[in-house]
Each structure stands twice: as C-alpha cells, then as structure tokens.
Here is the input.
Amino acid sequence: MADILQLLVAGLATGAIYALVAIGFTLLWQTSQTINFAQGEFVMLPAFFVLIGMGYFGLAFWPAVALATLVSVIVLGFLFKRLMVDPMIRHGVLPLVIATIGLAILMKEAIREFYAADAQPFPPLAAATDVTVFGAVFAVQSLVVLAISIAAVAALQLFLNGTRTGRCMQATAQNPTVARLLGIPVERMILYTFLINAALVTLASILITPIYLAKFTNGEWLGLYAFIAAIIGGFNQVRGAIVGGLLLGVIDNFAAAYISTQYRMALPLLILIVVILVRPQGLLGRIEERTV
Amino acid sequence: MRRSVLAGGALALAAVFLLLAPFAFRPYGIFILSMWAVMTIAAIGLNLTLGYAGQVSLAQAAFVGIGAYVTAYMTTKGWPFWMTYVIGGVACFAIGWVLGYPALRVQHHYLAFVTLAFNTLVYLVFRNEEWLTGGIYGISNVPRPSVLGWSMNSPREFYYFCLAHLALVSLAAWWLIRSPWGRAFIALRENPIRALSLGVDTRRYTLMAFALGAGLGGVSGALYAPLVQFVDPTPFALGLSLNLLLMVVVGGPGYFFGPFLGALVAVLLPEWMRFTEGYYLMGYAVLVIVLMVFCPTGLLGLVDRMFKPSRKTAAAEPPAGAVAAAAQSDGVR
Here is the structure.
C-alpha cells in the first residue's frame, strides 16, 4: 500500500509538469490552430536561460529565474508568434508543423553548440529530503512540484473563468468570428495565449530540470509526453490536458515499476493509439466540427 | 520550351555526375553518395504517401528500420539477399497497409501522432528484443550481396547497386504517378470528399498510399543494412522520420524530384559542409523555417515560382547557375 502511494505521488508530480506543458499546447491549438512540435524544446530552453543568468551574469537563483521568465515570454511567446506563426498560419497546419520541427532542431543545436553538450546540474527548488507520512516515504521535491503545479493551474483557471480578459480568451478559442463580432480584440487574445504558454513552459522547465538535469536533448521526450497528455485528455480542453498529464505521469510511473522499465514508454504510446482510434476527441474533449 | 530543355539538361548533367562520381571520390565520399541514394528511396516512398496522397506519416524511419533488420537478421543467418529483400519489402508493405487503417479514421495532426507513436514503439522493440535484434549492440557483419555471381563488396560496386535500385524505384514511381493510381492519390490529397463522390475508392487508395510508401521504406532499409554492414536501433528513432519528412518538404512535396533534392540537402550537404561544424544543422533549421514562411511548396516550388514570371516576360537573362541543379523538376506535379 505504501509503495503504491509513493508511486502515485511521484507519478502525480511528474504528471503535473506534463499537464502544465500540455495545457500550453492545447491553448495554442484552441486559439490559433498552432501545433507546436518544438513544445518540448520550449521546456528545455528556459532552464538554460536560468543557467546563463547565473553563470554569465552572476545572478542569484531567483533573479535568474525572473530574468529567464522575461526572456522566455518575449522569445518563446511574442517573437515565436510574430516571426513564425503569424506569417505561416495562412498556409495551413502542416507548414507550421514542419517549421516548428525546424525550430526544435535550431534550439537543440544552438544549446549544444553555444552552451554544453552534456547534462548540467540545475539548482533544486527544495532540499533533497524525504518525509514519511502513513509509512510511505515522499520526496519533498515531488510534493513541492505538485503544490506549485496545482497552484499554477488553479491560478490559470481563475484567470480564464474569473476575469474579463480570461473570458474573452475563451470566447476567442470557441469561435473567433463571433468573438470578433462581439468586439473582442481577437488578435490580442491570441497573443496572450502565446505569452501564457511561454510562462507555463518556463514554470515546467524550472520544476522538471532539477529532476532530469539540463540537457539539450530533454525536449525530445518532454514534447512527446506533452502531445500524449494533450491527446489523451482532449486536444481542445484545458481540463483535458490536466487529466491527461496526471494520468500519463501516474501510468508511466506504475508501468516502470510493475511492468517493465524497458517498455515504460510503450504503454503511454499504446494508450495514445487506442485513444486516437476509439475516441479521437480525447477523454474529456468535445468533437470538433469538420468543414468540407 | 526553353524551360524543359534546361530541366532536361540539368537532369542529364546530374545523371552523368552520379555515374562518374565514384571515380573521383574517396571511399567515404562514395559511401555518402550511396547513403544519399538509399535515403532518396525512402523519401520517394514518403513523397508518395505525403506529397501525392496527402497522408501525414511520421513512421518512415520505422519501415527503413524493419527493412534493415529483416535483411541484417536473415543474411547473417545465410539467406540469399534477394529473398530477404523481397521479404523485407513485402513485410513493410503489409505493416504499412495496417498502419493505414488509423488514417481512415483520423487525419492531419492526429495521424501524425499515431504514426509517431508507432515509430517509437518499433524503436523500443528494436532496442529491447535482444534475442531478435541484438538490442543496443545491434547486428554486425551484414554481408553485401552478389548479383549473378558478381560480388558487390567494394564501395564503388555497391554504390552502383544502390544507384540501380534508385533508378528502378524512380521509374516505378514515375509510372505510378502517371497511372490512374497516381491521379487517385492526388484526388485524395486535394479533396477526399469530392474524390469519394466521383467514385474513387478513397479507402483503398489511402491504405495503398501508406503501404506503397512503407514498402519503399523497406526497400531503402534492405539496402541500408548491407551498405553500413551494421544495424543498431539508434538510426531508426523518431529523428530519422522527422528528417525524412523534412527532406520531402524541403525538396518540395508532390514534386517528383523533390525527394532527390531534399535528400541532397539533408545527406550530402552536411558532409561537404563539415568545416562549418555544428552550424550546418542550425543553418538547415533556419532554411526550413524561412522556406515554410515564404514558400511552403519547398525548393522546387521556389524554382517553379522563379521560372514562371521569367517565362511571361521572356527575360533575356538566363537563370542563375545555382538554380540549374535544382531545375530538374520541370515543375512536374
């Protein structure tokens, strides 16, 4: 029982990080039909911004995080939208997919070339100690990760449902044409989702990098997990991405413990295939209307 | 008129270059050229699936891998090459057919994710089933075949072997695209619902597009194994699938010569650009992004576009030499 509880909490912690990345992914899809194949690299990069801030500018950890967040929001949010998505979106989905694959290569190679090819240690948010509750041992780090992720998701939900801007963003996601007719500045709302995505990936980066070290290849599997989480939960729902991320983290952890570490990756992939074939809109998603 | 002459000239030049190149190159250069031919075959397959039939597939590396592993496993067990070659190709065709079924249900990005998942699953099998694939140690000492008692052992001979395959595959693809099948593929890409209403059996052609692309992936793999003479899981991970996708898109999806050009940019140029070290890949990535912003139809689409106005205004200036190499397309769609 204690084992299961431990695995569950550790799985929820990584799952919560996947959920953060997947939420950003679904937000971009909902408002602008952007499928970002570089989403994993978007998570990989801010950790290096922090390391650069600390190493080259001699900043302390938290100021470096603040700087990295700012840089991410500008580069991964604003510039990504203006320079890549805006000029390309009229060509349809596929060119943008290809371009983001190119962007992923560019980011990976730039880090390898200009920073380091090997894994870099990254300062943890919490001391590497354990606490024992009901006979089960939990890493404090997992609990901190879980708490911060839940807080972030709650704040995001509050923003989306509770503020005028958030509601405008939801309207934009549901029907851009009608939103525009109602006087909502659709373009600005879309920009906001890109900025939120950049903030979410930065948070995910700072949470996950202490666990897996900062490496230029991190984005490859992170991106894959984000896709899987988003699709399992539902491509067009924020709460779908949350459920998908948490589910994926837990399944992944249990598969590694009870089935096979070699095939731990296989179970999420099989679930992905089954979900797409049986319920393409995802567990919580709604069916998108198709235009002929 | 002048345009087709130019394209024909470029094509002839390229053919002469390919035939004479092994006499000017060192073994490593010949190896890279052979690799170009092998990857072009895989990219032609993907071009059928993606460029002509419009079905996104991120699993081409898995089929190259299956072809390579079948050949490596069986030839090291003493089977004759041609037999493993046929088995590898047919196996990929069959698996590709099955992989096509999801495409009947979902499209576009969902299809991309299904095929992506399939590719990663196949990679996991390559890596973990040691009794069959040798795990991470792979299968080494893959023998090279002999044709009519003529051994293909030296790099140059094997290069011609690959080139001959490329020529055969190209001819078959050329014929296919011009046949009713090819037209059905294009109808499928342009408007599946209209194609269906016009009596095209979209179900069968969708599956066929996948199966044919996969089969060519298998052929490419069957050549890959004896070329490298060593097979391990790493080259067949998702990276190669993305790379093949980029080859097709950079060259020009739906252009017959797109894969040739795309593979040239992705396989040959990095070797010639060795002096740029890590910067080449970055440059390549920027090229992909810029190309997608300005011309999503790829390099050949760009050439097409450059030629069209010059034909109208009958510009006296001949097109720049740099374009000539790419001008083989003749805008075949």
Chain B touches chain A at residues 56, 102, 105-106, 108-110, 112-114, 116-118, 120-121, 124, 127-128, 193, 238-239, 242, 245-246, 249, 277-279, 281-282, 284-289, 292-293, 296 (CB under 8 Å). The first strand of chain B starts at residue 139 and ends at 140. The radius of gyration of chain B is 20 Å. The longest helix of chain B spans residues 202-228.
